[in-house]
Design a protein that fits this description.
Helices cover about 30% and strands about 45% of the residues. It has about 140 residues and is α+β, with helices and mostly antiparallel strands. A hairpin with a 2-residue loop joins strand 5 (about 60-75) and strand 6. It is globular and about 55 Å long.
Length: about 140
């Protein structure tokens, strides 16, 4: 059975980040990694801070970093809702690495707050996305 491409919308707290036709979306839910292909069953899942890979119908791969959120799949549409979304090309890798290093040090000393640990997870997702983007160019 042949399926039509999926309609993807990626929305942050303040804007529509991406809207395009895709053939695959890979993200990390609270249950583990998931890949969404055309014809996927309806689904709602909680997302954790992660890198999201988007394979566009023209064959390009778009890479994003999100701070968690929600993934919804229904009737040929995928919606990714996240408070903070960064396109990989917007990520300043050295800044992210530096901040992550500082937060790892704080965590290793036993003084990290929940917000700092969450921020570290976000930075790790941004670093992974930025590195994958750089490696693909």
């Amino acid at each position: 059975m042949e399926y039509q491409p999926l309609k993807l919308e990626v929305v942050s707290a303040d804007k529509m980040v991406m809207q395009c036709d895709v053939v695959n979306v890979i993200a990390r839910t609270s249950e583990g990694d998931i890949g969404i292909l055309p014809g996927h069953e309806p689904l709602m899942a909680a997302l954790v801070p992660c890198m999201v890979e988007v394979i566009v119908v023209d064959g390009r791969t778009e890479i994003l970093a999100i701070d968690g959120g929600l993934l919804a799949v229904a009737q040929g549409h995928i919606r990714v809702l996240s408070h903070e979304v960064k396109l990989a090309e917007e990520i300043l890798l050295e800044e992210a690495r530096g901040e992550a290093h500082e937060l790892r040090h704080i965590r290793s000393q036993g003084g990290a707050t929940d917000d700092q640990i969450h921020r570290l997870h976000i930075l790790n997702a941004q670093i992974r996305a930025g590195e994958k983007y750089q490696a693909s160019r």
